[in-house]
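Encode chain A's predicted structure.
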Amino acid sequence: MDDACRVMQFAAPRTPLVAALRPLPCPAEGQVRVRVEACGVCRTDLHVADGDLPQAHYPIVPGHEVVGVVDALGANVQAPAVGERVGVPWLGRSCGHCDFCRAGRENLCDAPEFVGCTMDGGFATHMLAHAAWCIRLEGLRAEPASLAPLLCAGLIGWRALRAAGPCRQLGLYGFGAAAHILCPMAVARGVAVHAFTRPNDVPTQAFARSLGACWAGGSDQAPPRPLDAAILFAPDGALVPVALGRVRKGGRVVCAGIHMSDIPSFAYERLWGERDVVSVANLTREDARTYFDAGGDRIETCVRTFALQDANRALQALRDGGLHGAAVIVPG
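Encoded structure for chain A:
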């Protein structure tokens, strides 16, 4: 049906996605309509599914790693143009006038909109997006399914790497979509990557080594040398004191997820020595510009594609830890 949009949506937290048919959405002023070509599946989608994010609105169409083609414009949109390929990331819009926005820190906006959380996302054939927050992808040679994970997994890894500061020995805790994109990018910059997986996850450890990690082992193991920094993609707060015990004096632990279980108490000696614990919150449009300028689109992503109607299977595969790389929904 040319005048209809197919979506997979959560009616409420802790319920499966259900299929729905909606009228084709019409963009309001400042918006564009995007025909979705591919949408990556992110761990944040699981947090939306589980009701972990208090800002989420239901019913909601998840998905914030969207690649698609603009097929309609709202009033006063000068760019992107109809027919242009764009990306739609997690930050759907910032207010532009709070203290953070005025300081160039739109990722910390006091009144943001989040794609697939407070506004409908890309588990759909079509979606609306605010034009000024779309990432223009024209000229990038990668296929939509390969580009999609870059819109969050790639960008959050990039922001986390910059937050880690200068380092030669880097630990990555949780080797999923973000880590598998970041690993070869860091290695190409001369960084020795140490990959930490679930204990005894030999296949994922082999996968990490195949992407350039110099060492891979369980999160319960010590790396062969102290780390300058560690990035936590796994949403397990118990890993924070573990990682602090692996970084040298002056080192840094970066928590890169939007949601994490509570951090247990730990001895001050784990933190002493001017070690830092910092978090990464959301993304900015500048992150996307610098990431693609740095060649982020040239990273070869490992993806497993799913049809739109199989989106629940994609989420379950991510939850089970059965993916090497990223799951991507292709509406078809």
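The first strand starts at residue 4 and ends at 9.
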